[in-house]
Amino acid sequence: MGVGGTLEYISGLMSSGHNKHKKKKQLQNVELKVRMDCEGCELKVKKTLSSLSGVKSVDINRKQQKVTVTGYVEANKVLKKAKSTGKKAELWPYVPYSLVAQPYAVHAYDKKAPPGYVRNVEQPPINGTVTRYEDPYITMFSDENPNACSIM
Questions:
Q1: What Å distances lie between residue 42 and 93, 94, 98, CA to CA?
Q2: pLDDT tens-digit profile of 108-151?
Q3: What are phi and psi of 128, to 5 degrees?
Q4: φ/ψ (deg, to 5) at 82
Q5: Residue 88 in contact with residue 34, Cβ under 8 Å?
Q6: 71 alpha-carbon distance from chain centroid
Q7: What per-residue confidence (pLDDT) applies to 22?
Q8: Rounded CA gap, 50 and 104, in Å?
Q9: Which of 7, 27, 40, 95 has the greatest CB tally within 10 Å of its CB?
Q10: Helix (H, G, I), strand (E, B) or coil at 41
């Protein structure tokens, strides 16, 4: 423990509530999907979310229905505040399709998703089996492939 840590510890002991350490909130980005149709909806959502304590910035992309809140906030509080506007709101449910093993499977594919995104789906754990995905073009010309000569 350095000098700064020691001084902080001693000042914590001297204060009246030394057992109650407040946890500092981390600066984070909270992404929401909020249904917005017009500029008025956009302004209403932006004004409401900006009024939260700890919010540094609110960015809105109306075309994607995406709201990004940056600040020292908790995701559930931001979501609750967004729902208080009367708009349909949820945490951003999409991830880039390159991060999903099977992006066009029924559970992951979503017609309403922005281009290049699919729904974020939790993969159920498979007990005792490891699935390995190999690109078929890499093994097509491999020396270990017995059918490689028939392709050439």
A1: 20, 20, 30
A2: 777 778 888 888 766 555 555 556 666 666 666 667 767 666 65
A3: 75, 0
A4: -65, -40
A5: yes
A6: 15
A7: 58
A8: 37
A9: 95
A10: helix
Q: What is the pTM of this model?
A: 0.60
Max CA pair span of the chain: 81
Residue appearing with tokens 């809105």: 60
User: What is the layout of strands, in order, in the sheet containing 28-34?
Assistant: 55-61, 66-71, 28-34, 89-91
114 touches 64 (CB < 8 A): yes
Residue positions counted in the chain: 152
Residue 51, judged by CB atoms within 10 A of its CB (0-12, 13-18, 19+), counts as: exposed
CA distance 33 to 113: 10
Angle of helix 75-83 relative to helix 39-50, nearest 10 degrees?
A: 140
Rg (C-alpha) for the chain, rounded Å, is: 25
Rounded Cα–Cα distance for residues 137 and 63 (Å): 37
Type of residue found at 20: K
Task: Name the DSSP letter for residue 99.
Answer: G
List the one residue out of 27, 49, 30 whose CA is nearest residue 91. 30
- Cβ neighbours, 10 Å, residue 19: 6
